[in-house]
Amino acid sequence: MTELAAVARSYALLADGSTVEIRPADQSDSARVLAFHQEMSPSNSYLRFFSLSKRAAADEAQRVCRPPGPDHVALLALLNDEVVGVASYEPTARPGAAEAAFAVADPMHGRGVATLLLEHLVSVARARGVSCLTAETLPENTAMLRVFAEAGLSVTRQSADGVVELTMLVPRGVALSEASPYLDAVEGREQRAGRASLVPLLAPGSVAVIGAGHRPGSIGRAILLNIRDAGFAGALYGVNAHLAEIEGIPCARSVSALPETPDLAVVAVPAASVPGVAQECGRRGVKALVVITSGLDATQQAALLDATRHSGMRLVGPNCFGVAVPGSRLDATFAVRHPAAGTAGLAVQSGGVGIALLGHLSRLGIGISSFASLGDKLDVSGNDMLMWWEQDGTTKLAVLYLESFGSPRKFARTARRVSATMPVLTVHAGRSAPGQRAAASHTAAAAAPLITREALFEQAGIIATTSLGELLDATALLACQPVPAGRRVCVVSNAGGAGVLAADAAAEAGLTVVTMSPATQDRLRQILPSGTSVGGPVDTTAGVSAEAFGNCLAELAACGEADAMIAAVVTTAAADLVPTLTARRLEVPVAAVILDQPDAVRVLPGRAGVADVPAYAYPEGAARALGRAARYGAWRRRPAGTIPEIGGLRTAEARALISSFLARVPGGGWLPAAETQELLRCYGVPLVETIPARDETTAVAAAAALGRHVVIKAEVPGLVHKTDAGAVELDLRGTRAVRSAMHRLQQRFGGQLSGVIVQPMITGGTELIIGVVQEPVFGPLVVFGLGGVGTEVLADHAARLAPLTSADADELIHSIRAAPLLLGYRGQPAADLDGLRDALLRVSRLAADLPEVAELDLNPVIARPAGITAVDARIRVISHGPADPFLRQLR
Question: For residues 48 and 102, what is the distance between their CA atoms, to the nearest angstrom?
Answer without folding.
Answer: 7
